Amino acid sequence: MSFKIYLSGEIHSDWREKISNGIKDNALDVEISSPVTNHEASDNCGEKTLGPEAEPFWKDHKAAKINAIRIRKCIEDADVVVVRFGNQYKQWNAAFDAGYAAALGKMIITLHDEELTHALKEVDAVAQAVCSSPEQVVKILAYTLN
Description:
Elements: E1 3-9, H1 15-25, E2 30-33, H2 39-50, H3 56-77, E3 80-84, H4 92-103, E4 107-111, H5 121-126, E5 129-131, H6 134-145
């Protein structure tokens, strides 16, 4: 068995690398995809490809729509969607990704610190697992694949 997983969520820590390294260390048959994790590139892709905007709303609107091409395709192709919520920033886009994945019937693993449990109770309620570390995510993948 193999999995395609999509790693959604915060971009300010090394959680993706920890999961990727854990997958390699355990020789798991897993293909990983993720959004563009370069914050500046993601924010500016609309203006760089379609031209400048006078209003911040339209700049963000263009970027969101262009980024959605990749994100939607990756979620649709994924067997499992891992959604990471960090403590420093509000990841509204990650919550949207979780909702989209749930609507598609995808298996979801959420990843966040315990302080966010109450705030994320609805997201966690649709997840197959709720983790507090990347290592737990890897253990779940190892268990389900072996």
